Amino acid sequence: MKNVLVVDYKMGNIDSIVRGIEECGEKPIVSNRSEDFQAASSIILPGVGSFTKAMENIHKYGLEELLRENAVDKKKPLLGICLGMQILASKGFEGGETPGLGLIEGEVVRFQTDDPEIRIPHVGWNEVIFAQNSPLFNNIESGRDFYFVHSYHFICADESISIAYTPYCGDFTSVVCKGNIFGTQFHPEKSQRVGLQLLKNFLII
To answer: Residue 110: pLDDT band by 50, 70, 90 thresholds?
Structure first.
């Protein structure tokens, strides 16, 4: 049994993530306490809401250094989900330009389109096409559908960090990976069996 920490910074869909992890056979801890970070073997950073408010709460609860210490210095696997992926970036523009955690260099910008057929926010099921191999994708076929809810997307400074993309409003990055740090723009915990497989894959990294 692993020590899976779901970071509680009052911005996430915590209950559904906890249920998803439990379905994968693990019992997560929901916390923002330093001692639980230190005991964790894997960390999940959820998120629902705006980039600016998320970073306000990250600072409010003193989580920036804890995330950096455990993910960067100690190399513990970290998975950011939806807004949790976005705040891994250098900066975001939702609610005004705001510095992010800077764990993956890049920026988070709003979708732009003149096509009246393309709806913003992007809500619903859409395919995720793998650009690179990753242990996160074990036993999952490229092109499977996952569930999305977002108006902003992550532009990586280094294209090699973008390991999967989704065709919507052009192509946007839907999965990032930098060493032990991963992010999914979609919600694996809401993506039925294929999403649970991705969570299982993360939990054994």
So the answer is: very high
* CATH code where residue 32 lies: 3.40.50.880
Cα separation, 112 vs 66, in Å, equals 34
Domain range for 106 is: 4-203
Give the pLDDT confidence of 120-169 residue by residue, as tens digits: 999 999 999 999 999 999 999 999 999 999 999 999 999 999 999 999 99
Cite the active site residues: 82, 187, 189
Domain count, the chain: 1
- How far is CA 25 from its chain centroid? 21
